[in-house]
From TrEMBL:
Keyword Cytoplasm applies: yes
TM ranges: none
Annotated GO biological process: peptide biosynthetic process
Keywords on record: Cytoplasm, Elongation factor, Protein biosynthesis
SMART domains assigned to the protein according to its UniProt record, in alphabetical order: EFP (SM01185), Elong-fact-P_C (SM00841)
GO cellular component terms, A-Z: cytosol
Phylogenetic lineage: Bacteria, Pseudomonadati, Bacteroidota, Flavobacteriia, Flavobacteriales
GO MF: translation elongation factor activity
InterPro entries attached to this UniProt entry: Elong-fact-P_C, NA-bd_OB-fold, Rib_uL2_dom2, Transl_elong_fac_P/YeiP, Transl_elong_KOW-like, Transl_elong_P/YeiP_cen, Transl_elong_P/YeiP_CS, Transl_elongation_fac_P
Protein name: Elongation factor P
Gene3D superfamilies: 2.30.30.30, Nucleic acid-binding proteins
């Protein structure tokens, strides 16, 4: 058992007969009244996100988890298949357990949280950024670069990302996985 002072991003807790992962939290201590913790939690089974407020000192049932590095292999339409980098065992997960499937390319190494009680995978943590190749984008218009203008570009995984006008087809770009936004162009 833990309490609200132990809440942090990535913590898995048991709440309402389900396991939730803390996405965001904020400790609030108003001038009048008791302190509380405002949280945003994502269900690891359904993928549904909820907001909840815990009063300060409230007991929470945390779930012990281990993290393992897995390599993404392929998607067969229903399941996403991963291989453990340590012992080469394979697991398959539903799309709800993965945050950004549109940015996941074959061979990408991700971190998977596994419940130590029953060895069930809980969620997939993508790396902070991924490098993807632009497969389609319109050519930039010359002279239109005075402002921070962007254009849509389709990357190799099928995701659409807004990129600056100087990005062309075939360029490799770094994309932030949390927001799905362009970060920089990779020079080769």
């Amino acid at each position: 058992m833990a309490n609200t002072s132990d809440i942090r991003n990535g913590l898995c807790i048991r709440y309402n007969d389900d396991i939730y992962k803390i996405i965001e939290f904020l400790h609030v201590k108003p001038g009048k009244g008791p302190a509380f913790v405002r949280t945003k939690m994502k269900s690891v089974t359904t993928g549904k996100t909820i907001d909840n407020t815990f009063s300060a000192g409230h007991k929470i049932d945390d779930v012990r988890v281990e993290t393992h590095k897995f390599q993404y292999l392929y998607n067969d339409g229903e399941f996403y298949h991963f291989m453990n980098e340590a012992d080469y065992s394979q697991i398959r997960l539903l799309e709800a357990a993965i945050d950004r499937t549109d940015l996941l390319k074959e061979g990408e190494v991700v971190t998977i949280l596994i419940n130590t009680e029953d060895d069930m995978p809980l969620s997939v943590d993508m790396p902070a950024t991924v490098v993807l190749e632009v497969t389609h984008t319109e050519p930039g218009v010359k002279g239109n670069t005075a402002t921070n203008a962007t254009k849509p570009a389709t990357v190799e995984t099928g995701a659409e990302v807004n990129v600056p006008l100087f990005i062309n087809e075939g360029d490799k770009i770094r994309v932030e996985t949390e927001k799905g936004t362009y970060k920089e162009r990779i020079k080769e």
